[in-house]
Amino acid sequence: MSPGKIKGMTVLGLETSCDETAVAVYDGSRGLLGDEVFSQFDLHRAWGGVVPELAARDHIRRLLPMVKATLAGAGTAPGDVDGVAYTAGPGLIGALMVGAAVAESLAYAWGVPVIGVHHMEGHLLAPMLEPDPPGFPFVALLVSGGHTMLVEVAGVGRYRILGESLDDAAGEAFDKTAKLLGLGYPGGAALAALAEKGRPGVFEFPRPMLDRPGLDFSFSGLKTAAVVAAKDRALDEQGRADLARGFEAAVVDTLVAKALRALDSTGLDTLVVAGGVGANRKLRADLAAAAARRGARVHYPRPGFCTDNAAMIAYAGYRRLSAGQHADIAIRARARWSLDELAPVA
Ligand code: KG4
Ligand code: ZN
Questions:
Q1: 119 CA to middle of ligand 2, Å?
Q2: For a Cys staple, 178 with which of 7, 173, 183, 275, CB 3.0–4.6 Å?
Q3: 99: CA distance to ligand 2 center in Å?
Q4: Are 280 and 187 in contact (CB under 8 A)?
């Protein structure tokens, strides 16, 4: 491959870490050429949560046809693909194995390099796909169904975890409270919509760990407080909305306060918010107000790139592959994997 082609590499990205099957094509010169996501919500809804085995089996059914369709939609033939990137972890091991096996096989068949991408690296680089991308260094607030963490980002692969949830992730707390309110699965967005009809101050929940120094989070006590509050009163429709509002306010206040604390402790003035909970309107409004007060900038990916997608994986893979990083053909899948362990990109 010529140096020019390396910079303009076309990378196929696959994401199968949980309940979204996603495929994207990112080109270093032309940007994002294709991006498809299939959500397995309907498959898991009856079970009230993601069933790992069902997730893996559905990825098997959908992934290759989606690769074909996404490549065709992007006007790209397999021969145009210069590298393949896939989510190698963290996530559900069976689901990850499907993406890994397909990506490694395609790369082998096409004779191109392949790389396993860290799912959270994908999330934190997602705002780089927007027209006004953040510059390094920045603080990333990663808030998804599986993770809540604050990371100091000095460059691609140069991450320092400042704090993380000691128990439930913020999205998990949203989903569990939504389930309690009968909002189905995954209920984070439905809970947020209900909260908009709620009255402030009717339910006051604790702001977990705000009274302690440091940047770790804990949301399981808050979820328990919501369970207790819901049991104590017979809730009508307005009561459910009031509870949703009180719960959302407690989570958002905690996330905003800790994000500002992270900017203070690092001396940085750029915040990137990514992960599914980053789609929350109250979080966005409160962070915007708090950042404006202190002259900081907040960057988000577009809503579709807050939740799981392959565009972020193709992009992270592009950054690594175009810098010459790739691995031997081997199926790589890790249920647990810390961002701290990643290799920096020059
Ligand atoms: O990043 P993501 O798609 O998947 C994981 O990697 O976990 O995040 C999904 C999470 C779910 O917990 C979902 O309920 C939550 O993001 N979520 C929201 C909103 N939209 C999605 N939580 C609060 N408010 C929202 N508007
Ligand atoms: Zn995610």
A1: 6
A2: 183
A3: 15
A4: no
Query: Which ligand is nearest to the Cα of residue 194, counting in written order?
Result: 1
Domain with CATH 3.30.420.40 in the chain: 10-126+305-341, 136-300
Alpha-carbon distance 343 to 346, whole Å?
10
The answer to whether the pTM exceeds 0.85 is yes
Token pair 């919500």 in the structure block, residue: 41
Give me the amino acid identity at 171. Answer: G
The CATH class, in words, for 136-300 is: alpha beta
Residue 256, number of CB atoms within 10 A of its CB:
19
- Ligand 1 pocket check for 307: Cβ under 6 Å: yes
Encode the chain (346 residues) as per-residue pLDDT tens digits: 555 566 689 999 999 999 999 999 999 999 999 999 999 989 998 888 889 999 999 999 999 999 999 999 999 999 999 999 999 999 999 999 999 999 999 999 999 999 999 999 999 999 999 999 999 999 999 999 989 999 999 999 999 999 999 999 999 999 999 999 999 888 999 999 999 999 999 999 988 888 888 999 999 999 899 989 888 777 899 999 999 999 999 999 999 999 999 999 999 999 999 999 999 999 999 999 999 999 999 999 998 999 999 999 999 999 999 999 988 888 899 999 999 899 999 8
Is 174 touching ligand 1 by the criterion CB < 6 Å? Answer: yes
Say yes or no: CB of residue 34 within 6 Å of ligand 1: no
- Most ligand 1 atoms within 8 A of CB, residue of 174, 194, 282, 313 to mutate: 174
The pick from 185, 277, 305, 306 for probing ligand 1's pocket by mutation, whose C-beta has the most ligand atoms within 8 angstroms, reads 277
Q: The domain 10-126+305-341: what is its CATH number?
A: 3.30.420.40
Question: What is the Cα 16 distance to its own chain's centre?
Answer: 12
- Token pair 């299939």 in the structure block, residue: 38
Question: Which pairing describes strands 31-39 and 20-27: parallel, antiparallel, or unpaired?
Answer: antiparallel
